[in-house]
Design a protein that fits this description.
It is a single chain. By secondary structure, the protein is mainly beta. It has one helix at 3-16; strands at residues 30-36, 41-43, 49-57, 63-71, 74-75, 79-81, 90-100, 104-115, 121-133. The protein has a 5-stranded mixed sheet with strand order 2-9-8-4-5, with no helix packed on it. Strands 1-3-7-6 form a 4-stranded antiparallel sheet, with no helix packed on it.
Amino acid sequence: MNQFFKAVLIAFFCAFFPQQAPAAPEVTPLEVTKMKPESPAKLPLGEKFTVSIRYHNPGPNPVQVFARPYTKGASTRGYGAHPCEPRGKGRGKVEGWFVFDAKAKVDEIVITMVDSKTKQVSATLKVPVDLTWE
């Protein structure tokens, strides 16, 4: 087969059967890597529930990552929780926690990543759980 014919065939296949580069994997801005204790759990009053979170901040501004307890779609009342130091651009890990001193039932953890300068929520992750403080 001569060079001209090869070039024509290659041009034909490239024109009608273009190859696409594989899509880049989607970056998940928030991911739970560990919960302590694991759900379902019954905790004594005053014991912390801890959640380890991996985050990705693609923006230029620092962010804060909050893990908060919810019950039936609303913020659970009466909890104490971790402080939220601003985190820079890129990937990182943060450990969040919350605790109750009175009886409580939590069915969801809502994790939010908030731009520290604009106060806009840049990502939210809802994690179903079954946690009871008694």
